[in-house]
Write a structure and sequence with these properties.
Elements: H1 2-17, E1 21-23, E2 35-37, H2 39-58, E3 63-65, H3 75-80, H4 82-85, E4 87-93, E5 99-101, H5 102-128, H6 134-140, H7 142-163, H8 167-177, E6 189-196, E7 199-203, E8 211-215, H9 220-224, H10 227-233, E9 240-249, E10 264-274, H11 279-295, E11 304-308, E12 318-326, E13 329-338, H12 342-351, E14 357-359, E15 364-366, E16 369-376, H13 377-388, E17 389-393, E18 399-403, E19 414-418, H14 425-436, E20 442-444, H15 450-460, E21 464-468, H16 470-475, E22 477-482, E23 488-492, H17 496-504, H18 506-510
Parallel strand pairs: 3-9, 19-20, 19-21
Antiparallel strand pairs: 1-2, 4-5, 4-6, 7-8, 9-10, 10-16, 11-12, 12-13, 13-16, 14-15, 17-18, 21-22, 22-23
The structure holds glycyl-adenosine-5'-phosphate.
Length: 513
């Protein structure tokens, strides 16, 4: 656990030091759970977004994209259920005056029990060595069984109070478990209250004539309300999808874990419209397709797992998360939801407009069912960034910090480095730069010794360094150094483009899907 926290701290400071993520309005001490993407961060974020868009839109002839407005007619959110039910249960500690999400307090408590089980397993593994049988240990060890039983009981009661919206039961659960405030250490809790997560604002100049609107809490509704526009103008035939990337806003109360949970964040969503009755097979298919997209980036299959929801939202008939092994453990990265015809039917009812599809093969109209894939771009950024940041022991006993970003996502693909700042080397380096910049984002650096510049590029995540030396003036060749292997090769300047393209080309990466 300490190791995980350590890694997370490194991620935070590295993201700032190397120009990836800054706290928003830092000079005013920041704004909680709001972040700015810096010069390298904005490139990494754009590359992730492009990688998603290419895989979802460009590679599927039956998926098209839109870019709907952030502000929508307020009835949208009444119809979607967000005005009435997009709530978090909150509880305050009377001594520290700190506010918490009641469900998170309980989940954290349950996770601590889980950590104890893991500790027991690790200890036993050490004690029994090769003879250790983990399955048998988990199913027979009295401590593990007792803890597992307690976890199961907590899950059952947590699900019940959430499903029944039993706020008193929620508070009793917190009291019964003896959960204390992490700040004051006391159990002096208030009642549990529901709190709506949408940010509201006004459209209009004067108080009397203004209309209450909301900053969208998800991009999906912009797709639903445009379903028929896109279907008709694009002459789309079911099954088809509409994709969108864009900002979403939630007034998150438990704002922590850096860009994992933000108040302003970006989603990449796709709604896939299908014939009623076929949603289960499309749901399974999209689960697999999305997992393959993640795996294509080569960050290790062991770092992903599905978590099927036991507790389904009232509109869903199946839902699963793709969880990723973040520095603070496995957490939701993406959701795949079978949303039935709930959203379109609600918008039909509230708008009074038909949102149906005429199926020529069936010769009838129906409200399509929807399978949704929804991933947070910032969460994906954190997944990629945190998994790529490693510290390597080198043969000479030193260590190097290297950001092993998948080359296709790296902000800069190559750094061009003249060995010295004289003798005509910068001119050759500039010429290479001017040629390569048409195809790739490239970086020029002539400050400090070349070894130091290599280290800087390793830490910034640049896959290639290209060094121009005195021989380059004679043989039109340069040294190309690979970030991950540190291998150096002499190559012709005229071959550089092909060498870099072979590593960073989207096709090479997406073909792994
Ligand atoms: N349209 C469905 C939907 O919005 P969700 O599970 O609430 O579903 C989808 O959100 C994804 O958006 C999550 O899996 C997560 O990656 C991202 N996300 C949600 N809330 C977020 C937040 N406060 N900060 C960053 N990302 C968030």
């Amino acid at each position: 656990m300490a190791k995980q926290e350590d890694q997370f701290k490194k991620v935070l400071s590295h993201a700032k030091e190397y120009g990836y993520v800054f706290q928003s309005s830092e000079i005013y001490d920041g704004l909680s759970a709001v972040y700015d993407y810096a010069q390298n961060g904005v490139e990494l974020k754009k590359n992730i977004r492009d990688y998603w868009w290419k895989a979802m839109v460009q590679m599927h002839e039956n998926i098209v994209g839109i870019d709907a407005a952030i502000l929508m007619h307020p009835t949208t959110w009444k119809a979607s259920g967000h005005v009435d039910a997009f709530n978090d249960p909150l509880i305050d500690n009377k001594d520290s005056k700190k506010r918490y999400r009641a469900d998170v307090l309980v989940e954290d408590f349950r996770e601590k029990i889980n950590e104890k089980i893991n500790k027991d397993i690790t200890k036993a593994k050490k004690r029994f060595g090769d003879a250790f049988n983990e399955e048998e240990f988990i199913s027979t060890n009295p401590n593990v069984l007792r803890r597992q039983k307690q976890m199961d009981e907590i899950t059952v009661e947590l699900t019940r109070v959430q499903e029944e919206n039993d706020l008193e039961g929620f508070r009793n659960l917190i009291l019964d478990l003896g959960i204390v405030c992490p700040v004051s250490g006391s159990k002096n809790w208030t009642e549990v209250k529901q709190f709506n997560l949408m940010f509201g604002t006004q459209i209009g100049a004067s108080a009397e004539n203004s209309t209450q609107v909301y900053l969208r809490p998800e991009t999906a509704q912009g797709i639903f309300v445009n379903f028929l526009n896109v279907q008709k103008t694009g002459r789309m035939k079911i099954p088809f999808g509409i994709a969108q990337t864009g900002k979403a806003f939630r007034n998150e109360i438990v704002a922590r874990q850096f860009i994992f949970r933000m108040r302003e964040f970006e989603q990449m969503e796709m709604q896939f419209f299908v014939k009623p009755g076929t949603q289960k097979e499309w749901y399974e298919a999209w689960k697999q397709t999305r997992l393959k997209w993640h795996l294509s980036l080569g960050m290790g299959a062991e770092n992903y797992r599905f978590h099927d929801h036991d507790k389904l939202a009232h509109y869903a008939d199946a839902a699963a998360d793709i969880e990723f092994n973040f520095p603070f453990g496995f957490k939701e990265l993406e959701g795949i939801h079978s949303r039935t015809d709930f959203d379109l039917s609600q918008h039909e009812e509230y708008s009074g407009k038909k949102l149906q599809y005429f199926d020529h093969t069936e010769n009838k109209s129906y409200v399509p069912y929807v399978v949704e894939t929804s991933i947070g771009l910032d969460r994906m950024f954190l997944a990629v960034f945190s998994k790529s940041l490693v510290e390597e022991e080198l043969e000479n006993g030193t260590t190097r910090t290297v950001l092993k970003l998948p080359a296709v996502l790296a902000p800069y693909k190559a750094a061009i480095l003249p060995l010295v700042k004289k003798d005509g080397l910068p001119e050759v380096a500039r010429k290479i730069m001017d040629e390569l910049k048409w195809d790739f984002n490239v970086f020029y650096d002539e400050k400090d010794a070349v070894g130091k510049r290599y280290r800087r590029q390793d830490a910034a995540g640049t896959p290639f360094c290209i060094t121009v030396d005195h021989d380059s003036l004679e043989d039109d060749s340069v040294t190309i150094r690979h970030r991950d292997t540190m291998e150096q090769k002499r190559v012709k300047i005229s071959d550089l483009k092909a060498i870099i393209k072979a590593e960073v080309d989207v096709k090479k990466w997406l073909q792994k899907m």
